[in-house]
User: What shape does this take?
Amino acid sequence: MQRKKRIRSRELTSKLQRHAHERAAAEARRIPWQVLVEARNQYLDWQEFYYWARSIMDCEHAIPDLLARKLDEVCPGFLGAEKQYLLRHPKEATLAPVRLGQWIDERIFGFAKQGGWLLAITFYAVRETRYQKASACWSESVQKWQQARPIQYPSFEEWRREAARCDETARLLPAIRKQRACFKLVDAERLAHAVSRFIDWEALAYWARPAFEAGGSLPSEVTHELDSRCPGFLESNAEQHGVNGRSPDDWDRLMLWISEHFFQDARSEGWYDAILISARTHPRVYRILIRIGFQSGWRPQDTAKNWRLCRVRAVCRF
Assistant: This one.
């Protein structure tokens, strides 16, 4: 009986996750990925502030002076609205963190909420290491401060530095912790740069994929592009199955070749999987997959440049 309940629970969780993904993807299609990434990064900044403020409020069950001054500076109008709310609902003082989160969503990200794509921002943001570190640091801060209240709470900048050092995997299942151990081997800025480069290369590979799968000789445009950007790959690939043959493994060999030639540092230092995991949840990758869904076979007009501009819809460009 317990086993059946666990199976049903996993199935329900998986179904809810797919539904959230589908909704977020539908919202993400409305805007250019660059705008979505910028909004996601802004949301991460605010979530770090939110979790710092929430850490203090959860311990004090109130808003002390240190936090009040910062809220007046960063969230002008929130404290006034909070006082008015508590006059009408005096028993709900402990829910101030919830109302702060709502205030941020409505006042700072109202443009996305009104435009119908706030879920897309939150969907991609909560999958970022920065968000997970802030969430973990909030939990650890509350636990620590409730056991021994500090003489003075850390400033936002101090708490943010502490969050950056936090182990976001501490409360994850062992299998997931093991999977994400590679993130500890690279700093966030270096990883972000590598992910951006990887998506560029993956876009090239997806552009060439229909030509590989079509059989026969590669179009001259594809041959020229691969010779220019991946010198030596076509020769190496030809040795695998004969000069004139095509293989369903061509695309996989191209991705492997790219990883070995352009991401040697990540592979040798053990954090290449962090690139793969991060790329899978990047808004830009979803746009690439949209383009693939509309592409049936390689055509002469599908130059690498035109494919990158993505003629399906203006909002799908990458």
Summary: The first helix runs from residue 2 to 28. The two ends are 49 Å apart (CA to CA). The chain has two domains: 19-170, 188-316.
